[in-house]
Amino acid sequence: MRISQLEALAAGGGRIALWGWGREGRAAYAALRAVRDSGSGVRDSAGVPLTVFCAEDEAREVLGLGDPSLAVETVASREHLARFDVVIKSPGISPYRAEAMAAAAQGTRFIGGTTLWFAGRAAAGEIAARTVCVTGTKGKSTTTALLAHLLRAHGLRTALAGNIGLPLLELLDAQADAWAIELSSYQTGDVAAGGVRPDVAVVTNIFPEHLDWHGSEAQYVEDKLALVTRARPRIAVLNADDPRLASLALPGSEIRWFGTPDGWHLRGDVLHRGAAAVMDTAGLPLPGRHNRGNLCAVLTAIEALGIDALPLARAAADFVPLPHRLQPLGTRDGVLWVNDSISTTPHASLAALDVYRDRRVALLVGGHDRGLDWQAFADAMRTRAPQTIVTMGQNGPRIHDLLAPIARGAGFRLAAADDLASATAQARAALDGDGVLLLSPGAPSFGAYRDYTARGRHFAALGGFDPDAITAIPGLGIA
């Protein structure tokens, strides 16, 4: 569905609403209120009636816009939602909520801003040229940013947008030579629902996550894979080392694998293209083998666009790492502070520990409890434990109970804290001026913080680092 179709719907008496007033919701509002040239003259959609469903503390801001055609409601009940023909939903709002499903059953159509953006690029069934969509449980942000970096090194005017921090609708009318688009599991279905096919789609890996939004692990996997199973990209770039991905058959798309001996892969720290060694990756600004593996995904995607990736591989040395992703903040009193606040699964915490396996580490884990199984993490601590683990947050007690029977035999110190400040203080004391203080919580921040960025900023401040200096995402937008 295009913006023009929404305007025509409203002109014919149809009812349109926005659900959510975060950055995605504000971007959708701005897109619907923009003045554009339709080809036959200038049209102004400022008069299209809209309703915004938002929280009570956001209603004052919405009303302060002074838009006479804008109504505000703070209760998104089944009855209220069902009054609308189309609801443009922010990604963080699950379509599996009871009120959404009930309204959908009564005919309300729920779409996302990603659907609207793709509809503006091509017709249903057609390919949106030079769009590379990246998803995966972990590594999707770094992969997308690295992709944009290498495409720019090739001389292409490239957009870096999507879930990484810049809603696509903020670039609705922009032009670029290539689009590097990060999509969360909340957004992959939006691409499929619109019917426009991505040029290239990359999936880095699949692990259980966001079960509270999707309702079950099976639904999460189905929604995540919708980018390649239902959106039917021209070429799907998949990780051969991931068992779920390795078993996929995609009759509507060509599959190109990374991590195979005949493609881009790592042998130890050495990057290979088939049998040919390309370069040593140990010194790249991509901490952890998993991140260097993402370079293989990027180079495979670049080849899928018809570009020779080989001369671009070395440009990865100039990549600026993203904040909150195994981000070294600096050293204080002999202790290296590492901010991995974006770690929201136990698997991510294990990957972070592997990076510093040769150092004394105090690990901070725990946060919002969305029901993920920590047993595999606990089992790994029998042989891979750091010196100290401090549990915190809503699921902290549950993680602590799993680790307590293991700690003594495995020889690591286990402590518990009520919040990040207390956990940090205990970890610093345990390291006693020598080692790595690693925030890799393996859980979301909801409840204690607005998002992982706020959590990472607080961690930085606790260490005496400037939060503003460590949180900017380099390269967003078009360059």
Brief overview, please?
By secondary structure, the chain is an alpha/beta fold. The longest helix is centred in the middle third of the chain and has 16 residues, at 289-304. 49% of the residues are buried.
Give structural notes.
- With 479 residues, this protein is of the alpha/beta class.
- The protein has three domains: 3-111, Rossmann fold (3-Layer(aba) Sandwich); 117-320, Mur-like, catalytic domain (UDP-N-acetylmuramoyl-L-alanine:D-glutamate ligase), CATH 3.40.1190.10; 327-470, Alpha-Beta Complex (Protein-Tyrosine Phosphatase, Chain A), CATH 3.90.190.20.
- The strands form five sheets. Strands 13-12-11-8-10-9-23 form a seven-stranded mixed sheet, with helices on both faces. A six-stranded mixed sheet has the order 17-18-22-19-20-21, sandwiched between helices.
- It is globular, with a radius of gyration of 23 Å.
List keywords for this structure.
alpha/beta, Protein-Tyrosine Phosphatase, Chain A, 479 residues, Rossmann fold, 3 domains, six-stranded mixed β-sheet, 22% strand, UDP-N-acetylmuramoyl-L-alanine:D-glutamate ligase
